Amino acid sequence: MKVNELMTHQALSPSPTKLCVKVGGAGEVVFGGHAVVLIAGPCAVETEHQMMTSAQAAQRAGAKMLRGGAYKPRTSPHAFQGLGEPGLALLRQARRETGLPFVTEAVCVETLKRVAEDADMVQIGARNMQNFALLRAAGRQSRPVMLKRGLSATYAEWLFAAEYIAMEGNTQIVLCERGIRTYEPATRNTLDLSAIPILRMQTSYPVIVDPSHATGRKEAVHPMALAGVAGGADGVMVDIHPAPKEALCDGPQALSFASLLTLGEGMRDVAAAVGRA
Amino acid sequence: MKVNELMTHQALSPSPTKLCVKVGGAGEVVFGGHAVVLIAGPCAVETEHQMMTSAQAAQRAGAKMLRGGAYKPRTSPHAFQGLGEPGLALLRQARRETGLPFVTEAVCVETLKRVAEDADMVQIGARNMQNFALLRAAGRQSRPVMLKRGLSATYAEWLFAAEYIAMEGNTQIVLCERGIRTYEPATRNTLDLSAIPILRMQTSYPVIVDPSHATGRKEAVHPMALAGVAGGADGVMVDIHPAPKEALCDGPQALSFASLLTLGEGMRDVAAAVGRA
Amino acid sequence: MKVNELMTHQALSPSPTKLCVKVGGAGEVVFGGHAVVLIAGPCAVETEHQMMTSAQAAQRAGAKMLRGGAYKPRTSPHAFQGLGEPGLALLRQARRETGLPFVTEAVCVETLKRVAEDADMVQIGARNMQNFALLRAAGRQSRPVMLKRGLSATYAEWLFAAEYIAMEGNTQIVLCERGIRTYEPATRNTLDLSAIPILRMQTSYPVIVDPSHATGRKEAVHPMALAGVAGGADGVMVDIHPAPKEALCDGPQALSFASLLTLGEGMRDVAAAVGRA
Amino acid sequence: MKVNELMTHQALSPSPTKLCVKVGGAGEVVFGGHAVVLIAGPCAVETEHQMMTSAQAAQRAGAKMLRGGAYKPRTSPHAFQGLGEPGLALLRQARRETGLPFVTEAVCVETLKRVAEDADMVQIGARNMQNFALLRAAGRQSRPVMLKRGLSATYAEWLFAAEYIAMEGNTQIVLCERGIRTYEPATRNTLDLSAIPILRMQTSYPVIVDPSHATGRKEAVHPMALAGVAGGADGVMVDIHPAPKEALCDGPQALSFASLLTLGEGMRDVAAAVGRA
Fold first, then answer.
1. Predicted ipTM?
2. Do residues C144 and C121 lie in contact, with contact meaning Cβ atoms separated by under 8 Å?
3. What is the Cα–Cα distance from D231 to B219, expressed in whole angstroms?
């Protein structure tokens, strides 16, 4: 499959007009516009205290949107699978308390129904990037969709996955680069920031980056978040936790609240340097 | 995730007893026993003529089982998606005419229900190896399951995927190595035959190989099928087509009927050389 | 080989002091200090006109150093192998005319002798990252060394390669991330910017990036250069050409002089945003 | 670089005539003929006892050729670098005692001179596959050359490396597949046996496999050696050691002498099954 054989729903042209994807009841968050959106929250929703303090920290740092996993796709069936319904309730509570919309993952067609009722944006995770039934179902509901790149998906395959959603009528899609699988053992995956300019030439969908899942190491999150902004990303999504070492999921990549505050400042400076807000 | 951190349903020991997985009403096909099983059939079921001539060719070549896709997971939503229900009907007809059981892919929880009614074995494809809802559903039905390795899945992740199935009560699982994604452009994927001996040390599940999807080139199928047998595989699955150049799906990797006959003979000789039938 | 088994010449500590590598007779270029160094020049030196106009364009854009290949390691023996000695002469002329020091590649022990006489900095290319005889020879001469990462080298292997140089007495080493080999066909290689923060924790050597060779596409060079600066790189090296389409080597990744000017401005802004010059 | 753009010294045709490469004074070992050649010996020559007992074990198992590293290219400069000259002396002694020719690695142009004087075949290792000066030097001496595939080299690049040798006048080249770098951590590298049939279509050079370095695990060596033979390899090279756990280099992949004897028998059976000797 060659990139130039792509026939996606969004007309391909050397510099396609960027699509604006609006999230939240008041349409207050826009991906693909002038502003670079910061999304922050815990990898997995665990407790009321964890979620509420995280939401407040996100807001303080300038995040415009919350993240948090209620349903978690885990490699091992013996690992924590997420709180499920109570997790969604805590996300709703966090939204009420902060006014920030939230994105959360749908791991199957069943959970998609619930997620689409509650969440402001539906996430399709890397492992499900070619779960075509789920993609189609995401295209038949009305929430905007954040489509993560598969761990070994080419840009072309990623755009075809977006096309499965778009074909059903929902073109409110944001692409999220979250690292690809390589031979390098020092990072969890390899963040492929070149996806930003290359996809910019091939598609209208906004592109954001997730340096937390890409690198798996908190020390790399700040510099890679800034690199993403400098490279043209329309948003950055990071994991945070009040006590990273006690996290039930992916603690080593979670920023502390203090680090998030610093990141928010850094992002503002770099965004300004590249003419964004 | 380290391989040695695995806690799978099948006890891990230096040389676990191999599990025998029986397929077909009369239990006539056994994976993990003395015989190396040849499975053959078209990548996608297309027409009655194609399916019936393929089934007869498979039988002539010594295949003990048929394959054929009724539901096809395709990278592009614009590509042929399989015949669906009429494809299943043709597979049933081929089974009646030859007496050979068949395996076919379930691409989602919905199609799994239909496939489990008709097929002798349910295939979970590479793209769905971490579709956990589908894995769980496959564990809650009674047909044996062929679990293909994901395009960039480690052995450990593959065994965890099997564990999702086994945890629900179905341990009739056959693992199918079908090539992994590498940087080499001359083959579709890279067939990783080392999976056979390494998995043999870590799990009881039989392991088979699919040299057609792994290499994507018919010239490599015969030698890689023999290599699989010599390397200890419990079975080999290959694509065939009456007219490969006219195939709707993956024609370049399909063997002609004459080539399949030669392959059957070659496999018998190599199997005998390594003490198998 | 695990990263944490590394015993390199430079003491490993959570945050090693960064080494300053000085280049040029007057020591006017410093890697690892406050300033982010821009290096620009043609991939291969071709003609006097090409080299001199490139050098002037580099200077206008704020580059502090020139690059240019006189000896080129090429995949095919039938491809242009570089001008050799006349190429070195043109690089010396460009230095005289602009006052900027230059780096050029030594492809073997023989060419290293000549390069070390003329150049201000010796480059060891990706294909030679584990050419241990060449590394040792580079350690026994007195010019600073730019060590490119091998196409499939881990950070640990890269640091061990640096150690081969350092052991011979030359610790004036700058590491250059230039992309790694992955399955993605849309870019030549995948620029791995996470190398910057991870190496920052493991070694004292400055780290720069080469977005031209990493991406192979001029459209990606500007955003990836800025991403590198935002991610903490100590320098950026880019290919330029007066007429990219006529380049004898790697034309598709070469910036025009106008694009370089824009890049220089962009780098200044981003560097300022992250507290660098 | 596309495979079909290759213009190698050996004319490319759908089924090129296979070249026979003869090794040893009496030309008694032939790669590319009817027989599949077994090469065995220690990874690194360590002591007289180790080398002589290994040579005798190799001969007993039916090996027609010895291997042993006198000069070792090691990732770390602090690792054992080989015995050098005394290693060559032990290899000569092993040849005298058994009558078997030997292959050993030249790690640089300097060592190539010495190796070419003593050895019956010169090995160019994976890390040096694109050390073009070394390739050219190997082409200007008269010993046959075993060219190992680089850790992340495509088939096309590998053939171009062979072309660097052939252009200088030496076409006595045997290609050795030794595994490629992938994300799978359970094996050292991933043995890519598809290289055998694909290269068979593109080049006249014989192809052998090294399952020891490819898998890095002794448990996988026997089955992957047989797989190589079944897949059409012209030879198999394996590491052996009188006491693998005490080996100075790559012990985990070394076969015991008893295992080698079993392997020799297994190879004979599989070779016969595919019409080879």
1. 0.94
2. yes
3. 12
The DSSP element (H or E) to which B163 belongs, if any, is helix B155-167
Q: Which amino acid is at C201?
A: M
Q: CB-based contacts of C175: which residues, under 8 Å, 6+ apart?
A: C147, C149, C158, C162, C195, C199, C203, C205, C206, C207, C208
- C52-91 as b/e, with b when 16 or more CB fall inside 10 Å? bbbbebbbebbbbbbbbbbbbbbbbbeeebbbeeebbbbb
Q: Which chain B residue's Cα is nearest to D231?
A: B223
Judged against a pLDDT cut of 50, whether residue A157 lies above it is answered with yes
Nearest residue of D to residue A190 by CA position?
D183
List the Cα angle B115/B118/B120 in 5-degree steps: 90
Residue A126 CA to residue A179 CA, distance in Å, equals 9
How far is residue B180's CA from residue B170's CA, in Å, rounded to a whole number?
A: 26
- In the 3-class helix/strand/coil scheme, how is C18-77 assigned residue by residue? CCCEEECCCCCEEECCCCCEEEEECCECCCHHHHHHHHHHHHHCCCCEEECECCCCCCCC
In angstroms, the CA D151 to CA A181 distance is 17
Q: Which residues of D touch C73 (CB under 8 A)?
A: 130, 132
**To the nearest whole angstrom, how far is the Cα of B240 from the nearest Cα of chain D?**
19
Closest chain D residue to the Cα of A184, Cα to Cα: D183
Whether chain D has a CB inside 8 Å of the CB on B230: the answer is yes
B183 reaches C (C-beta below 8 A): yes
Q: How many helices (H) and strands (E) does chain D have?
A: 9, 10
Q: Do D132 and C73 touch (CB under 8 A)?
A: yes
Determine contact: A2 vs chain D, CB below 8 A.
Answer: no
Give the pTM: 0.94
Most D-contacting residue of A181, A183, A184, A189 (CB-CB within 10 A), to test interface? A183
- pLDDT per position as a tens digit, B9-28: 443 444 578 899 999 977 68
Task: Name residue, tokens 């140089």.
Answer: C165
Q: B207-238: per-residue pLDDT in tens?
A: 999 999 999 999 999 999 999 999 999 999 99
Which of B133, B107, B130 lies closest to B122 in space, CA to CA? B107
Question: How many other CB atoms are there within 10 angstroms of residue A172's CB atom?
Answer: 21
Please answer yes or no on whether C76 and D163 come within 8 Å at the CB atom: yes
Tokens at residue D135, please? 């390739």
In SS3 terms, D172-199 reads as: CEEEEECCECCCCCCCCCECCCCHHHHH
- Cβ pair C209, C36 in contact under 8 A: no
Q: Pick from A204, A228, A213, A102: which is nearest to A150 by CA?
A: A213
Q: By CA distance, what is C187's nearest residue in B?
A: B183
